[in-house]
Amino acid sequence: MFERRGEEPEFAEDEGKVSPLKELLSMLIYIGVVLGVTFLIITFVGQRTHVSGESMKNTLDHGDQLIVDKITYRFRDPERFDIIVFPFRYKENTYYIKRIIGLPGETVQIADGTIYINGQVLEESYGREVMQDPGIAAEPITLGEDEYFVLGDNRNQSSDSRDPSVGLIHRDEIIGRAWLRIWPLDSFGILKHQ
User: Fold this and answer.
1) Which residue is catalytic, options 17, 22, 52, 55?
2) Cis bond leading into 93, ω under 30°?
3) Is residue 32 part of a domain?
4) Does the N-terminal or the C-terminal CB of the chain have fewer CB atoms within 10 Å?
5) Total structural domains in the chain?
6) pTM of the model
7) Is residue 98 flagged as an active site residue?
8) What distance in Å separates the CA atoms of residue 192 and residue 180, rounded to the nearest whole number?
9) Rounded distance, CA 139 to CA 151, Å?
10) Which residues span the domain enclosing 135?
């Protein structure tokens, strides 16, 4: 047999052994990073919410699970017919989901179940039926620079801007817009606003 001289066989050191303390520290750092990224996404990008009640029926149903887009309005203003989420002023941890009808600077009035924007009939197909109660919009309401008038799609079963307890929504109150329905699975998809 022929044997090469001068070459030593190579042996790998056993690097597979990691101390339990290093392993624990590594796992804690990983969990911390995951929690930090999750917090940033929930705070600045989107969050899950669920629909409670019938005020947005037939667009959204009781029990629907949604992802709210919290980033779009950092780059553009809310638009008419966007479905938005905002906190209820008088009850902590209660949020409303409604559709924007009136924009800043516009005058909104509801007469005989018809919505008027700046004196012109608003062409829209979201309301399920003729509104029975115009609420505070029975008289013309001129919106301020940062105010929005919102309605639920189920107009006669909705507490919205017509109700003084909800009133006009200020720009800084808007958390985001409903973006994606994730439950029920047979209705999964991006929500249509316009």
Assistant:
1) 55
2) no
3) no
4) N
5) 1
6) 0.77
7) yes
8) 9
9) 16
10) 43-190
